[in-house]
Design a protein that fits this description.
Layout lengths: L20 H14 L4 E5 L2 E7 L8 E6 L2 H22 L1
Antiparallel strand pairs: 1-2, 2-3
Length: 91
């Protein structure tokens, strides 16, 4: 389930230039396609993701945040890997 940061869908982790609103929206949509269980947005230069709790059977949500899209992408990838590992351990 590991997503390669070199994939064409992964955000630029260097964050070379500020993004326009349309560019940020397009990047958020791309990250959301890679992590469909999560809602992605950015505000005030901070990137956010709201998604499912990692505890099986729990219906609460959790929010991740990072100063850039690359950091958020890495956190989402880690969260998805941990959730998958927890589910596998229960089987």
């Amino acid at each position: 389930m590991h997503r390669d940061m070199e994939s064409p869908h992964a955000p630029d982790v260097q964050g070379s230039l500020p993004l326009t609103g349309d560019q940020a929206d397009a990047l958020a949509a791309g990250i959301a396609r890679a992590f469909p269980a999560w809602r992605i947005w950015q505000a005030g230069g901070i990137w956010y993701a709201a998604g499912p709790c990692p505890r099986p059977g729990c219906r609460c949500a959790r929010t991740l945040h990072a100063p850039g899209p690359g950091g958020l992408y890495r956190q989402l990838d880690d969260a998805e890997q941990r959730t998958h590992a927890r589910r596998e351990a229960l089987l």
